[in-house]
TrEMBL record:
<keyword id="KW-0862">Zinc</keyword>
<feature type="binding site">
    <location>
        <begin position="89"/>
        <end position="90"/>
    </location>
    <ligand>
        <name>NAD(+)</name>
    </ligand>
</feature>
<dbReference type="InterPro" id="IPR018239">
    <property type="entry name" value="DNA_ligase_AS"/>
</dbReference>
<dbReference type="InterPro" id="IPR013839">
    <property type="entry name" value="DNAligase_adenylation"/>
</dbReference>
<dbReference type="InterPro" id="IPR003583">
    <property type="entry name" value="Hlx-hairpin-Hlx_DNA-bd_motif"/>
</dbReference>
<dbReference type="Pfam" id="PF00533">
    <property type="entry name" value="BRCT"/>
</dbReference>
<dbReference type="InterPro" id="IPR036420">
    <property type="entry name" value="BRCT_dom_sf"/>
</dbReference>
<dbReference type="GO" id="GO:0006281">
    <property type="term" value="P:DNA repair"/>
</dbReference>
<protein>
    <recommendedName>
        <fullName>DNA ligase</fullName>
        <ecNumber>6.5.1.2</ecNumber>
    </recommendedName>
</protein>
<keyword id="KW-0227">DNA damage</keyword>
<dbReference type="Pfam" id="PF01653">
    <property type="entry name" value="DNA_ligase_aden"/>
</dbReference>
<feature type="binding site">
    <location>
        <position position="186"/>
    </location>
    <ligand>
        <name>NAD(+)</name>
    </ligand>
</feature>
<keyword id="KW-0460">Magnesium</keyword>
<feature type="binding site">
    <location>
        <position position="461"/>
    </location>
    <ligand>
        <name>Zn(2+)</name>
    </ligand>
</feature>
<keyword id="KW-0479">Metal-binding</keyword>
<dbReference type="InterPro" id="IPR010994">
    <property type="entry name" value="RuvA_2-like"/>
</dbReference>
<dbReference type="GO" id="GO:0006260">
    <property type="term" value="P:DNA replication"/>
</dbReference>
Length: 700
């Protein structure tokens, strides 16, 4: 019930608004400017007064009130949000020569466009490359309405409830703002806050986090926003997506009216200053520089002071400052031509190589893995590192007992650079690849002309079985929602599921008995299995995990043979008639179906009621693309790639992943990359979505 607006109510409303404004200013000074002007006790007094007013007058509570940052009710799962403007990644540079080459490319392009005088230097904004989680915040009429992770660049997870708990993120912008503003930036955690969080986690007997980035990502992706609200997360803005004035035309007009020099809109640096004027946090560690020398000077200065920063970074970023120049430079593939990330060298440490184990992959690949004496490298404690294969171990001359140099390449993947030979002990032992699989005991063989050794156990091997089931349940295969790795582990380890076919005999009662599986989750999984009993033939072939058979090849096999029995009966000559199937792929298919246990799985699937749906044979007027091969690249405005592929196949055409002289057409959408360039180089005709529809006689 709405409260009557008595004089007391009006007075309370004015006081609440004043308190909200004052607390917001204190939050900004504390979390953004790092310059508080009141004590914690005074801040708490103001907050408690506001809480008291809102409790007495519930109608006065607003979504932007600082009291609402405690977090909403837990979510069942994250929804998805499509980015209005894609969130693109950056190309990487590692050496001074890379930066000089980048500067030359930019200078040449701008000079060619008449935007740079001969001998002139390009102006760049140099910023920190934060080691956190990229997010996009959307403000409408100045109010935060939604937030999403980067995701795949096109679609991210809806983390609005969680972002609202971050005190460095304004719930309402100040000053003059457009009708719609999408702000891109990074969520991270200071190292000191990270240490305190881990101490608290340990005291409660809960999981500790590996590094600040891991802690930030885990905190932001909590289904319970009330947990996120307790985590010391921070946000820094560095870019934007959509900026729109619904009723007033171009944003440039708005910015010019809003204050000329105080709010410039023709440079990247100006946009960051504008963000600050709106109350958005922007890192002060940024600088406008000129040319390659300016960029490298900033890089050196930041590198020297890196340890003194309160948070982790893994490099710096350079962006052409002039926005008009950014527009001219445009994009290549999914990265802008006007920006580049300059990564710091991988951090290295030495430690002892205690032993070498082997891991078994989904296709039976045997990968040697080094067991290391724990060492802190690049912000994480490393205990294992891949050694890739037997040849790599021999090439690096790594032996058990060696002191080895460990590096995190690109600050991500631990690898062994090599041994410190001066410290090699007399009893350092050579690694010998085991002759039998450590999981199932089957023989390990190394196929001729291959660097990888493999377990021959196939679906008998529990290690391969787990990964095969996870692969089969994937979105591009049988798309069995709810069958995650944890449940697969339990199903295999209990002996209940030995092959894909066994999945389709599960009951809700059985599934509900497993760890972390409630009745509703079990029923949902069984419903997903029921929906997967009639998969397209191509998806079923892909789900089997045949080596070298990706989704495109599986689809081509389905089109050529029409049934799984026909694929199983095909000889090499028949297989070689399939698009993109050569001797290696054909041999892999033949070996797979020569194994009786694989044929048994196919038969068991049929007995369990799994019957593949054959692709529709092109006929009549649908033969428009018969015998023609098309390549898809980039993002189309209306059709997904799967939809476009389905229409092409229905018209008798083929879809390939690579461009050659035999390609009939390349269909290019937004962010088309190297395939478009290859088509232009070979003179292959290029179509957009409308051109494809016209070709299919489906034009709007």
């Amino acid at each position: 019930m709405t409260q009557k607006k008595t004089p007391d109510f009006e007075q309370a409303a004015r006081r609440a608004e004043a308190l909200r404004s004052e607390i917001a200013q204190h939050n900004h000074r504390y979390y953004v400017l790092d310059a508080p002007v009141v004590s914690d006790a005074e801040y708490d007094r103001l907050m408690n007064e506001l809480i008291g007013i809102e409790q007495a007058h519930p109608d006065l509570v607003t979504p932007e009130s600082p009291t609402q940052r405690v977090g909403a009710q837990p979510l069942a799962a994250f929804g998805s949000l499509r980015h209005t403007v894609p969130m693109r990644s950056l190309g990487n540079a590692f050496d001074p020569e890379d930066i000089q080459a980048f500067d030359k490319r930019v200078s040449d392009l701008l000079a060619g466009a008449g935007m740079l005088a001969p001998g002139g230097q390009v102006e760049y904004v140099a910023e920190l490359k934060f080691d956190g989680l990229a997010v996009s915040l959307r403000y409408e009429q100045g109010r935060l309405t939604r937030a999403a992770t980067r995701g795949d660049g096109q679609t991210g997870e809806d983390i609005t409830s969680n972002i609202r708990t971050l005190r460095s993120v304004p719930l309402k912008l100040i000053g003059r703002y457009p009708d719609v503003l999408e702000v891109r930036g990074e969520v991270l955690m200071n190292r000191a806050d990270f240490e305190r969080l881990n101490q608290a986690q340990q005291a409660r007997g809960e999981k500790v986090f590996v590094n600040p980035r891991n802690a930030a990502a885990g905190s932001l992706r909590q289904l319970d926003p009330r947990i996120t609200a307790t985590r010391p997360l921070r946000f820094f803005a560095y870019g934007w997506g959509e900026i729109r004035l619904v009723n007033r035309g171009q944003v440039e007009l708005f910015l010019q009216e809003a204050g000329d020099a105080d709010m410039p809109c023709d440079t990247h640096a100006g946009m960051l200053e504008w963000f600050e004027s709106l109350g958005l946090p922007v890192s002060a560690e940024r600088k406008v520089v000129r040319g390659a020398d300016g960029m490298l000077g900033f890089y050196a200065a930041v590198g020297a002071g890196r340890a003194g920063l309160p948070f982790d970074i893994d490099g710096v970023v350079y962006k052409v400052n002039e926005l008009a120049a950014q527009e001219v430079l445009g994009y290549v593939a999914r990265a802008p031509r006007y920006a580049i990330a300059h990564k710091f060298p991988a951090q290295e440490e030495t430690t002892l190589l205690l032993g070498i184990d082997v891991q078994v992959g989904r296709t039976g690949a045997i990968t040697p893995v080094a067991r290391l004496k724990p060492v802190f490298v690049g912000g994480v404690t490393v205990t294992n590192a891949t050694l890739h294969n037997d040849d790599e171990i021999r090439r690096k001359d790594v032996r058990i007992g060696d002191t080895v140099v460990v590096r995190r390449a690109g600050d991500v993947i631990p690898e062994i650079v090599g041994p410190v030979l001066e410290l090699r002990p007399p009893d350092a032992a050579l690694f010998v690849m085991p002759s039998h699989c450590p999981v199932c005991g089957s023989a390990i063989e190394r196929p001729e002309d291959e660097a990888i050794s493999r377990c021959t156990g196939g679906l008998f091997c529990a290690a391969q079985r787990k990964q095969s089931l996870t692969h089969a349940a994937g979105r591009k295969a049988l798309d069995i929602e709810g069958l995650g790795e944890k449940l697969v582990d339990q199903l295999v380890e209990s002996g209940r599921v030995k092959s894909i076919a066994d999945l389709f005999t599960l009951t809700a009662e059985e599934v509900a008995a497993y760890d972390r599986m409630g009745r509703k989750s079990a029923e949902n999984l069984v419903a997903a299995l029921e929906a997967a009993r009639k998969p397209p033939l191509g998806r079923l072939l892909y789900a089997l995990g045949i080596r070298h058979v990706g989704e495109s090849t599986a689809r081509d096999l389905a089109l050529r043979f029409g049934s799984i029995e026909a694929v199983m009966a095909a000889d090499e000559a028949a297989l070689l008639q399939v698009n993109d199937v050569g001797p290696v792929v054909a041999g892999s298919i033949l070996r797979f179906f020569a194994e009786q246990h694989n044929r048994d799985v196919v038969e068991a699937l049929s007995r369990a009621g799994v019957h593949a749906v054959p692709p529709e044979a092109p006929s009549g007027n649908n033969q428009r693309l018969a015998g023609r091969t098309l390549v898809l690249t980039g993002t189309m405005p209306n059709w997904t790639r799967d939809e476009a592929t389905r229409h092409i196949l229905a018209a008798g055409g083929k879809v390939s992943g690579s461009v050659s002289k035999k390609t009939a057409y390349v269909v290019a959408g937004e962010d088309a990359g190297s395939k478009l360039a290859k088509a232009q180089e070979l003179g292959v005709p290029v179509l957009d979505e409308q051109g494809l529809k016209a070709l299919l006689d489906m034009a709007d």
